[in-house]
C-alpha cells in the first residue's frame, strides 16, 4: 500500500452532498459546500431499485472539481434517496481538480466500504508527478492506495 498525494482528487468520487457529508478528510471544505451540478443527455430513475443512471456526455461538477464519463450510475441507500451507497462511472472517466487529474475506463466508489476502485488504463497526474496502472484501489479510512498491473510511477524532485 502506498500513501498518495493524489488522494483528494480520487476521493472526490464520492460526489453528491450526501456522500460528501458521509466522508471526511478529503476535498476542499469550500468545494464540499458548493452545489453539485449534473448534466447528461439522459437520466433514468428507478425508485423501486434505488438507481439513477445518467448517460451520454455526463459531467458532474462541484466547485472546481469535475467528473466526466459516458455513464454514471448512482445507487441510493435502501430507504433513503438522500444517501448514496455506491457510484459507478463508466467509459472515458476523467476526474479533475486544478492541475490534478485521474483517468480510467471505470471508477467504482463504495460508500459503505469506503473504497474507490479505478480500473482500466488508470493514469493519475499531479502536476508533473504520474502514477499509472491497470487498477488503483483507494481505502478512504486509511488514506492508502494500491496500484496493480504494470505500475509506473514518475515522481519529480521538489524545486529548491
From TrEMBL:
Q: Which GO terms describe its cellular component?
A: cell outer membrane; outer membrane-bounded periplasmic space
Q: Which top-level group of life is the source organism from?
A: Bacteria
Cell compartments where the protein resides: Periplasm
UniProt-listed Pfam families:
LptD_N
GO BP terms: namely:
Gram-negative-bacterium-type cell outer membrane assembly; lipopolysaccharide transport
> What are this entry's molecular-function GO terms?
glycolipid transfer activity; lipopolysaccharide binding
N-terminal signal peptide: 1-21
Keywords, A to Z, come to:
Periplasm, Signal, Transport
Q: Where is the Organic solvent tolerance-like N-terminal domain?
A: 37-143
Q: What is its main location?
A: periplasm
Relate the protein's function as given in its record: Involved in the assembly of lipopolysaccharide (LPS). Required for the translocation of LPS from the inner membrane to the outer membrane.
Q: How does it assemble?
A: Component of the lipopolysaccharide transport and assembly complex.
Q: Which family does it belong to?
A: Belongs to the LptA family.
Kindly provide the name given to this protein in its UniProt entry: Lipopolysaccharide export system protein LptA
This protein's species is Paracoccus yeei
Amino acid at each position: 500500500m502506498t500513501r498518495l498525494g493524489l488522494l483528494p482528487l480520487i476521493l472526490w468520487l464520492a460526489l453528491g452532498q450526501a456522500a460528501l457529508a458521509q466522508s471526511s478528510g478529503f476535498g476542499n471544505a469550500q468545494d464540499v459546500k458548493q452545489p453539485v451540478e449534473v448534466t447528461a443527455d439522459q437520466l433514468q430513475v428507478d425508485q423501486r431499485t434505488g438507481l439513477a443512471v445518467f448517460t451520454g456526455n455526463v459531467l458532474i461538477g462541484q466547485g472546481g472539481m469535475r467528473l466526466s464519463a459516458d455513464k454514471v450510475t448512482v445507487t441510493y441507500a435502501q430507504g433513503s434517496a438522500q444517501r448514496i451507497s455506491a457510484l459507478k462511472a463508466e467509459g472515458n472517466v476523467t476526474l479533475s481538480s486544478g492541475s490534478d487529474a485521474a483517468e480510467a475506463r471505470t471508477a467504482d466508489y463504495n460508500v459503505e466500504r469506503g473504497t474507490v476502485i479505478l480500473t482500466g488504463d488508470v493514469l493519475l497526474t499531479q502536476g508533473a508527478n504520474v502514477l499509472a496502472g491497470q487498477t488503483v484501489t483507494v481505502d478512504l479510512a486509511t488514506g492508502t492506495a494500491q496500484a496493480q498491473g504494470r505500475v509506473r510511477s514518475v515522481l519529480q524532485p521538489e524545486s529548491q
